[in-house]
Amino acid sequence: xxxxxxxxxxxxxxxxxxxxxxxxxxxxxxxxxxxxxxxxxxxxxxxxxxxxxxxxxxxxxxxxxxxxxxxxxxxxxxxxxxxxxxxxxxxxxxxxxxxxxxxxxxxxxxxxxxxxxxxxxxxxxxxxxxxxxxxxxxxxxxxxxxxxxxxxxxxxxxxxxxxxxxxxxxxxxxxxxxxxxxxxxxxxxxxxxxxxxxxxxxxxxxxxxxxxxxxxxxxxxxxxxxxxxxxxxxxxxxxxxxxxxxxxxxxxxxxxxxxxxxxxxxxxxxxxxxxxxxxxxxxxxxxxxxxx
Length: 292
Fold this sequence. Notes:
Membrane topology: Multi-pass membrane protein
Number of helices: 13
Keywords: Cell membrane, Membrane, Protein transport, Translocation, Transmembrane, Transmembrane helix, Transport
InterPro entries: TatC
Organism: Eiseniibacteriota bacterium
Largest sheet: none
Subunit structure: Forms a complex with TatA.
Low-confidence stretches: 1-10
Distance between the termini: 88 Å
């Protein structure tokens, strides 16, 4: 079964397990193929990208192993290939997952995917344009007259990429809080009551993600703390929306119940129980035998 047949609605039938595995294999191979093709296409520009990154952060860099410069270009090419091929990869994954989702689940998943992508790219941009230059300037500032920084291109790229990935993951905090709120594991009141603990945890995570010096730790922790308090507002919004939907559902259920049926006791609606007093009095007046 092809991807287009899934999207056009001809994939609602249940697929055998082996057919699922075959479709998953196609998705993985197609995604990897797209990334490799894009990486090959941008390899010619990888040297220019490396020069731009080196000049922007450290001015100049060196390589101390024969293969280091080549591997740096391969690494940048694969990274650019992933970024360029990301829309196709996401399309492949979405077309594989969407047939197994219900209609209301699709309405929830799609905005979350977009929200997660925006948060991740925001974290990467913050890392590259704010955090990394400040950290490189701070750390290279410890050099002396006879101790100078000779940074290798491989180390610089690893430093930039790892820090960008860490920031992109940490910026997913609002999405995590939203998911926990939807499944009713956390509430806005709980998040607000634990904000001091959250700040301590954020500082610890920032210390692990950075070299550990105070300024870079605070620079990374500051936006995460802001995102935590924004997550509380998001949790409050989701909680109120869920309560409103529940109230509307209960109101609709009450309106759908007939007035006469609602006023009749359940025992009598089932055909059993004791007759009302007025009915019993009428039966006594119609009793021909009477009492002595």
